[in-house]
Amino acid sequence: MIACLSDSLNALAALTLAYLLGAIPFGLLLGKARGVDVRTVGSRNIGATNVFRCVGAKWGILAFACDMLKGLGGVWCAALPALWGAEIGAHGALLLRVLCGAAAMLGHIFPVWLGFRGGKGVSTALGLLLGVAPLAAGVGLGVWGICFLASRYVSLSSCLAAVVVGGMVWTPLYAAHPRWFAILITTLALLAIIKHRANLARLCRGQENRFAFTAAQRARRDAKQEERP
Helix, strand, coil: what percent of the chain each, to 5? Predict the structure, then answer.
């Protein structure tokens, strides 16, 4: 019983570390390093897209990479209990990896340092998938890229990628995984979509902003915004 309690405490410590890692607001920190509080400009979101728009391309890419690595780092936190001497079986290890990755994603979405108001979790979810389901991560990223290039809507691309990943884990490609694996991944995909509900509402009203790559695209976007009542 003491050994079981020790293993549980080790797992809890790993989950806590994964959450705290995910709660590091890299987008906010990078913006402030450039003199911009991303919570007060653009979409007021601390995610990579708002950093890209309001701080600069290279800073947005860096924020994306950091947020993605938080998800992957969260998965790696699951290895800590074994290093601390905990006895974890194969299925238990996979469960802890998914849960630690999920904890990092939740840390990004609900960071304790910012009153639980964080990003939307897509970049961190990608890191989680790279750690536990790399094939789904690759397919989801490909779908995101195709949709984004065709539409220039980050929110639509993210939601479509979440739908594809959430459905993919129920296919024969992941038949060897436990049922709870598909349930957890689908739940996280649904969470990412729910976090985009305001964007989806704007899409339905025709008011969602497209991503602007060029000055001309930015000018058309700004002009469209000025025309709105």
Answer: 75, 0, 25
Least Cα distance to 105 among 195, 43, 174, 180 occurs for 195
DSSP 61-112: HHHHHHHHHHHHHHHHHTTHHHHTT----HHHHHHHHHHHHHHHHHHHHS-G
Rounded Cα–Cα distance for residues 172 and 170 (Å) = 7
Nearest one of 68, 33, 30 to 50, comparing CA atoms: 30
Alpha-carbon distance of 71 to 130, in angstroms, equals 8
pLDDT tens-digit series, residues 164-179: 999 999 999 999 999 9
The pLDDT tens digits for 34-79 are: 999 999 998 889 999 999 989 998 999 999 999 999 999 999 999 8
Mean pLDDT of the chain: 88
Of 151, 162, 156, whose CA–CA distance to 212 is shortest?
Answer: 151
CA distance linking residue 144 with residue 157, whole number of Å: 5
Count CB neighbours of 229 within 10 A: 2
| Cα–Cα distance for residue pair 20/18, rounded to 1 Å | 6
Task: State the DSSP H helix or E strand holding residue 204, giving kind and residue range, or none if neither.
Answer: helix 197-205
pLDDT at 214: 63
pTM: 0.88
Contact, 193 vs 201, CB < 8 A?
A: no
Residue 222 has pLDDT above 60, yes or no: no
